[in-house]
Amino acid sequence: MNSLSVAVEDAPTGPVVQVMGDLDYDSADVFRAAVGGLAVPPGALLVIDLAGLTFCDSSGITAFLAAWNHARASGGDAALAAVPPSTARILHIVGVDRILQVYPDATVAAQAASRGA
């Protein structure tokens, strides 16, 4: 088991949340607290960078949707970046990839946001 750590960076297009370790029932509240405290201004994109994600269960997927709701409530949006293949498969099966945009990495997500895509 890899403990979860969450780091937040400010980018011109909005906050970038880097998720490292296991996002599961025991750690989802850490992620939710980090995201819930972020300001996502209208038009901004909250990027959830999963390059360091080692495991994600249904609690993690629910936390991604909560992050999307948080961003949308303030007029922003949210996207996932660098989603590991095993997680991408699950996101596709349950349809989350039709709600949250998925990008190959955080840089591409920021570029898309700056173009208004």
TrEMBL record:
InterPro entries: Anti-sigma_ant, MlaB-like_STAS, STAS_dom, STAS_dom_sf. It comes from the Bacteria. One of its GO terms (molecular function) is anti-sigma factor antagonist activity. Gene3D superfamilies: STAS domain (3.30.750.24). This is Anti-sigma factor antagonist. Belongs to the anti-sigma-factor antagonist family. PANTHER family: ANTI-SIGMA FACTOR ANTAGONIST TM_1081-RELATED (PTHR33495:SF2), ANTI-SIGMA FACTOR ANTAGONIST TM_1081-RELATED-RELATED (PTHR33495). Coiled coil: none annotated. Residues 4-113 form the STAS domain.
